[in-house]
Amino acid sequence: MIDAVIFDWGGTLSEFVDAELVDAWRLAAHHLDPAREDEITARLVQIEAHFWATTSSHQRSATLADLMAAAAKELGLDVAEALLEEAALRHLDAWTPHIRHDPEAAETLVELRGQGLRIGMLSNTHWPRTFHEHFLERDGLVELIDARLYTSEMPFQKPHPSAFLAAARALGVEAEHAIFVGDRPWDDISGAHSAGMRTVLRPNPVAPDIAGINPDARISRLIELVDLVHAWS
């Protein structure tokens, strides 16, 4: 029996872009030192990439404050103050105009809810809840997702099984009665399997297949989930 469908965010419910927040780092870099804008931007992107690489090591979550502290230590600059001052001056849409949800996201969520399913979202992120909620509200998705979990508020990130089990608990379902939909074989598919969930992969070219990690199904479009989940139910 299937009681819930839990989604990844970036690359699954939202369209994947390779450098989602580079524009925010560039704003901070320009604020700090316009003459070194390119250099500081590149360093900040590199520092953020180091945080993402921990999904294959200790898997402990991090917050934006953690990242800012690391950046300040490495660069000797108050990156947090610069980023916050720019945030106060600019709307989030101006920061990241390229963040878009999949055009089929709302329709897919409505159809799944129509089947009586609980809907969840579990995102690996160091950004605060308010950042993501802004975009979900903007695109009319927030009311369609019963539980939205962000690893910036959790001890561990995907693929640690505790993150997936927390998502199931938030929805009030058993993990074995949940489906997880994601775009990354390691973070999403292996982690959800380790928690006892059924898995669906939406392939992402920047996250190629990994030998030995096999989803229960693959989709190329979100709307394909409606018939797939109905058949499994």
List keywords for this structure.
Rossmann fold; elongated; alpha/beta; 2 domains; 10 helices; six-stranded parallel sheet; 233 residues; 11% strand
What secondary-structure arrangement, pairings included, does this model have?
Layout: E1 4-7, H1 22-32, H2 37-52, H3 64-75, H4 79-89, H5 92-95, H6 105-114, E2 118-123, H7 129-138, E3 147-150, H8 161-171, E4 178-182, H9 185-194, E5 198-201, E6 217-218, H10 224-232
Parallel strand pairs: 1-2, 1-4, 2-3, 4-5, 5-6
In order across it, which strands form the biggest sheet?
3-2-1-4-5-6
What is the number of E strands?
Answer: 6
Indicate the radius of gyration in whole angstroms. Answer: 18 Å
- What is the CATH superfamily classification of the largest domain? HAD superfamily/HAD-like
What is the end-to-end distance?
6 Å
Relative strand content: 5-15%
Largest sheet: 6 strands, parallel
CATH class of the largest domain: Alpha Beta
Report the mean per-residue pLDDT as an integer. Answer: 89
Order of helices and strands: EHHHHHHEHEHEHEEH
Based on Cα principal axes, name the global outline: elongated
The CATH topology of the largest domain = Rossmann fold
Summed up, the helix count is 10
Percent of residues in helices comes to 40-55%
